From TrEMBL:
<protein>
    <submittedName>
        <fullName>Phosphoribosyltransferase</fullName>
    </submittedName>
</protein>
<dbReference type="Pfam" id="PF00156">
    <property type="entry name" value="Pribosyltran"/>
</dbReference>
<keyword id="KW-0808">Transferase</keyword>
<feature type="domain" description="Phosphoribosyltransferase">
    <location>
        <begin position="12"/>
        <end position="184"/>
    </location>
</feature>
<dbReference type="InterPro" id="IPR000836">
    <property type="entry name" value="PRTase_dom"/>
</dbReference>
<keyword id="KW-0328">Glycosyltransferase</keyword>
<dbReference type="GO" id="GO:0016757">
    <property type="term" value="F:glycosyltransferase activity"/>
</dbReference>
<dbReference type="InterPro" id="IPR029057">
    <property type="entry name" value="PRTase-like"/>
</dbReference>
Length: 207
C-alpha cells in the first residue's frame, strides 16, 4: 500500500537512481502519472513531458480496456475487441483521438512534444491493470528510436508486467501481486488528478 502517488514516485526514484545525471526524458501518462513524473524528472535531473494515449473501454464496461489509441493516431486493440460492433468501436476510437488532441492543446500549448529519439525514456504511470494504455505508449515510442525505453509503474498484475517486458527494455513495477483487482486498491490516497494540476506540473518543478 502506497500513501499516495508521490510515495510511489519516491520509491521509483530509488529504483531508477542510476539514471540521475543522464538527462532522462520522463514521459507521464495523464493524468495519474503526471505527479509521479514530475517527482521522477526532478529527482533524476531529467525532463518531463506527457505521452498521450487513451484507453478504449468496452461498450458494456468503459472501465475495462479493450485497447488504446496513441497520439500519432495508431490504434492498439486486444483480442476481446473483435466481439465489439465495428461502428460502436469506430465512434469510440474517434472520440478518444479528439480527446488526445484537446489534451495536447491544453497541456503544452506553446511547444511541441519533446522528441524521444536517442534519449533514455522513462514512461511512468501510477498503475496498469490490463496494460493496454502503457503498451500503446511503449509501442508508439519504440518507433521513435529511443536509446533505452523503461516502463515505471506503481502496481500491475504479473501477466501485465510480463506483457510490458516484451515491449520495453526494462520494466520497474513496485508491486505485482497475483490477486490484482484495481490500481486504486494500492493507494491510501488515490484522488483524481485534474487538468489544472497537470498543466501546473508540466510548467515547473513539483513540491
Amino acid at each position: 500500500m502506497f500513501r499516495d502517488r508521490l510515495d510511489a514516485a519516491r520509491q521509483l526514484v530509488e529504483r531508477l537512481a542510476h539514471l540521475r545525471g543522464r538527462n532522462p526524458l520522463v514521459l507521464a501518462i495523464p493524468r495519474g502519472g503526471v505527479p509521479m513524473g514530475r517527482q521522477l524528472a526532478d529527482a533524476l535531473e531529467g525532463e518531463l513531458d506527457v505521452v498521450l494515449v487513451r484507453k478504449i473501454g468496452a461498450p458494456s464496461n468503459p472501465e475495462f480496456a479493450i485497447g488504446a489509441v496513441s497520439e500519432d493516431g495508431s490504434v492498439h486493440l486486444g483480442e476481446v475487441a473483435r466481439h465489439c460492433h465495428e461502428d460502436v468501436l469506430a465512434d469510440e476510437i474517434e472520440r478518444q483521438r479528439e480527446l488526445i488532441a484537446e489534451r495536447r492543446r491544453r497541456y503544452t500549448p506553446v511547444r511541441a512534444p519533446i522528441d524521444p529519439t536517442g534519449r533514455i525514456v522513462v514512461v511512468v504511470d501510477d498503475g496498469s491493470a490490463t496494460g493496454a494504455t502503457m503498451a500503446a505508449a511503449l509501442t508508439t515510442l519504440r518507433q521513435r528510436d529511443p536509446a533505452r525505453l523503461i516502463a515505471a509503474i506503481g502496481c500491475a498484475p504479473p501477466d501485465t508486467v510480463e506483457r510490458l517486458a516484451a515491449l520495453a527494455d526494462e520494466v520497474v513495477c513496485l508491486d505485482a501481486p497475483p490477486h490484482f483487482q484495481a490500481v486504486g486498491q494500492f493507494f491510501a490516497d488515490f484522488g483524481q488528478v485534474e487538468d489544472d494540476e497537470v498543466i501546473a506540473l508540466l510548467g515547473g518543478s513539483g513540491q
